Every structure is written in C-alpha cells, then in structure tokens.
Amino acid sequence: MRFMIIVKATKDSEAGVMPDEKLLTEMGNYNEELVRAGVMLAGEGLHPSSKGARVRFSGAKRTVIDGPFAETKELIAGFWLWQVKSMEEAIEWVKRCPNPMPGDSEIEIRQVFEAEDFGEEFTPELREQEKRVWAEAERLAKKPRR
Fold this sequence. Notes:
About 30% of the residues lie in helices and about 25% in strands. The chain has 4 helices and 6 strands. A 4-stranded antiparallel sheet has the order 2-5-1-6. The chain has a two-stranded antiparallel sheet with strand order 3-4. The longest helix is centred in the last third of the chain and has 18 residues, at about 125-140.
C-alpha cells in the first residue's frame, strides 16, 4: 500500500522561515531510516504558498489565483510518499518523525489509489495507457536536467 504523508504548513513555514541545522539533521537521519527500511519512495519540502498559484475550474472556465493563500491549516509544507503494509504501519512511522515545525504541527496520512481500486471502469485500455504514461515519465525523470 502506498501512502502520502502530508506535512501541514504553519504560519512560520508560510512566512518562509527555514528549518535550523538541528531539524535538518534530524530529518536527514529520519529519511535515511525510512530509505533503509524500504519505506520512502519520495519526499520533498515545498516553498510557501506566496510562491504558488491555484487554478480554479468552473465548467470550461479556468481562473488563476496567485498565492499566498489565507487558510494556513489547509496548506502543505512538504510530503513523503511511502510504501508500507498498512495504515497502522504508516501511523507508527509518522509517530517516530521529528516534529517538522517549531512548536505545534500536524502530519496527515492519506492512502494512494491503486489501479484495482477503480474497478471495471479502469478498462484494459486505460491500464495500458497508464503503463505507457508511467514508462515515459520514468524515462524523462532519468534525463539530465537543464
């Protein structure tokens, strides 16, 4: 099972306050532990919403909204993608995480949909298309960045 582990933003992270060396060291050690255990597939921190944008959809209309966004509790400061056996295992790993923010913080755990979750609507043709798309994405990810 794959899970997205979502580090919620705080007023400090939205203000662009960077983690100190102690937290960076603790997180680096934690990430090494996740990798050694075969749990971590990906993980990154995100810039504050002031550097982001949202696209609102209303039928065929698209509206771009530039950050920052007001509701800090709804924002994401970073994420991991993990492969574990269960929600319980994901929770146990999160409980071992260093506090990602000075003061109070929150981490959300959400299971990622797998192909079999979509049932018959995910036809053989759509499954084949997904394989092609992911193969191409992996190929492009291996190319040197400019």
